[in-house]
Structure to design on (806 residues):
């Protein structure tokens, strides 16, 4: 993974301070250590799952589904996977019905994920599916130690995996929450963690990524009042759900009251997919209010030779310039052209991430890179990156309506 | 369709002025008249298409695909449609390959849509598919009168439909661009236009929607410097692509330099889906910077009786409060709870749109409502709503790279 910044920040003191804060934080916050975890249990459970199970279905919402979905949808288009992976992540009845229709309940293993064990959406869907499939062999539960869901599962002799301590939902993709469904579907989770670990080591051991992340986070924090919208512009359809994962990570971590002030602060995440969104959001970036930073993500090697045939169409001969070019070359040329166009504006903070290809190593690295960046910005804008007090009120009101 | 605003604006003079501007504009800008267009040609072409054609595929990007996709994905989950509809809207080679794999070329009718006739993405994909299917009977072209693509199609005796004058891509969904693929797939385009016409009449003939739209647009324009991010929070998975259509419409129309100043202005659109995004973006709305308005969209009647079974789970008896409730009731209670939670903040501009159900009448109304709102805000922030000069530079740079 390479990352070129088109801006700089030379506040060495701030960099040093933020780095120390992260070192402190990493002793306590659970996600930092996930790249080195022992995955023997996951691999052994995964290889023991019966071959008659053709489909894995995650029942979970938010942090319990977005991460695995991001990785699965990134890997699936280019790799023949062992099992399909489905997600039940909405109370929309039509969506639930159509998802059920697309799988066979008897050959599906369900993974019920709720950190608290009482997430309304997840438990509502679980009840519905439990009525269709009461055999507990078809379920695995992932929850916090001591939760009511753990007690329920234990009572039924169902398989339970516990979340490691101090890993929040939106930072949980590289824990059992993401690893189990991914391993069962055939994603190489060792390579995934290896990708994350490379970034971790580079950051903590004075590698290339340390300077990049400190510069970028400090720039974003210092200019948060002006550039408070942070767009990812990814040139591959396979990064669509990665963008949704990023939106949760960024928005829910960085949008809140400061720890030591009465200020509400926040950085607004936007996920865009090129070239499609050149025909949509790009106009707003190029000519709208100067309140957005843009990070381009490119896949260097699509490992795909699909090309535009050498055909000349009458009256459309001007388009012969694209003949014989591979689509992967074309899409990356489009990305480069938009980068140049934005660079030309001078006042839009811009950077470019290049990942090698659609593999586990690349997406593992990208995920850990964004987790570190989020933590750094959180430190530098003085928020508690890991809580989400703002979502509680809606839950309380719902409960009142239900009783 | 009902729309409750939780804020007010009493600038009668501005309302009157904006309404007059729109009346003037509507004599010239093409989309205003689409609800009353004659669709006899479309219906007759549609009924003449051979039954051996099982699939319709749109080759188009941006305004040439987003609108039809929004409507199709809204209708499809609840209605048995005659034909599947696919979209080729990216130069991503893996996406192209996987889309091709999911259809049968010999039983597919391709609709090639490019207003200019020379859109790089569209023509690159057309060349690729043309090499697989050279029989021109399998194609219909939609383009501007006089374009090179029209000349090519005419030369090959292929079917061509021309875009009506002065209808921009992002305002073209209710023209031939959206209507043809939708009609061929079995969507009731008469009902779609009827829905749009109801909104149009209500707006222009002093109906209920006139006051609503004038109040909302004026509020957004007056407060654009503070509330410059406009979120849609839609409580149905079927509105996912509607949100993408909205993002293009809003962002590309309203993000630009003012007509009579040097200011770059812009309102940033965000599309959210509930309840999923309660576990993601909601925290940022509730506790982040106060720079966002939120519009909730609810479907009053999911016409679906799927319900949570009356099951009590050991240790999880607290959750018995959701037993026997339909999922459609639950999702709408979730929506109401979040509305109350946001209302409680006092300083977040809020409104709620209720549409009746997943049918053509409802989505036609919703689309026209948003087109009118966009035009009104455009007038009130003094931008040319219908151009997109900011996307040209990237195209020029790409062409230089290709030559």
């Amino acid at each position: 993974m390479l990352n070129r910044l088109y801006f700089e920040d030379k506040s060495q003191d701030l960099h040093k301070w933020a780095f120390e804060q992260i070192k402190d934080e990493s002793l306590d916050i659970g996600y930092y250590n996930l790249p080195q975890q022992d995955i023997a249990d996951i691999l052994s459970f995964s290889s023991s799952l019966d071959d008659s199970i053709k489909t894995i279905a995650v029942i979970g919402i938010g942090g319990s589904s977005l991460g695995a979905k991001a990785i699965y949808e990134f890997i699936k288009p280019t790799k023949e996977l062992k099992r399909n992976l489905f997600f039940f992540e909405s109370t929309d009845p039509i969506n639930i019905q159509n998802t059920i229709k697309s799988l066979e309940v008897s050959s599906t293993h369900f993974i019920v994920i709720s950190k608290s064990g009482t997430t309304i959406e997840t438990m509502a869907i679980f009840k519905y599916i439990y009525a269709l499939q009461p055999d507990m062999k078809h379920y695995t539960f992932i929850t916090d130690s001591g939760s009511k869901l753990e007690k329920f599962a234990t009572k039924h002799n169902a398989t339970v995996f516990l979340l490691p301590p101090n890993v929040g939902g939106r930072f949980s993709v590289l824990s059992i929450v993401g690893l189990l469904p991914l391993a069962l579907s055939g994603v190489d989770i060792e390579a995934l963690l290896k990708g994350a670990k490379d970034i971790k080591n580079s950051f903590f051991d004075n590698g290339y990524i340390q300077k990049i992340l400190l510069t970028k986070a400090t720039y974003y924090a210092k200019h948060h009042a002006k550039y408070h919208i942070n767009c990812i512009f990814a040139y591959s359809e396979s990064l669509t759900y990665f963008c949704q994962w990023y939106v949760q990570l960024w928005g829910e971590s960085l949008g809140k009251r400061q720890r030591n002030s009465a200020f509400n602060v926040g950085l607004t995440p936007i996920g865009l997919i090129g070239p499609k969104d050149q025909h949509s959001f790009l106009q707003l970036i190029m000519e709208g209010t100067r309140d957005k930073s843009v990070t381009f993500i490119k896949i260097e090697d699509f490992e795909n030779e699909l090309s535009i045939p050498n055909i000349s169409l009458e009256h459309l001969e001007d388009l012969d310039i694209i003949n014989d070019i591979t689509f992967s070359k074309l899409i990356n040329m489009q990305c480069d052209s938009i980068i140049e166009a934005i660079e030309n504006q001078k006042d839009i903070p811009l950077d470019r991430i290049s990942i090698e290809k659609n593999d586990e190593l690349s997406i593992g690295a990208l995920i850990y890179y964004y987790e570190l960046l989020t933590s750094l910005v959180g430190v530098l804008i003085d928020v508690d990156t890991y809580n989400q007090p703002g979502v509680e009120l809606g839950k309380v009101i719902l409960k009142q309506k239900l009783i």
User: Anything to note?
Assistant: The domain at 2-27+191-389 of chain A is CATH 3.40.50.10490 (Rossmann fold).
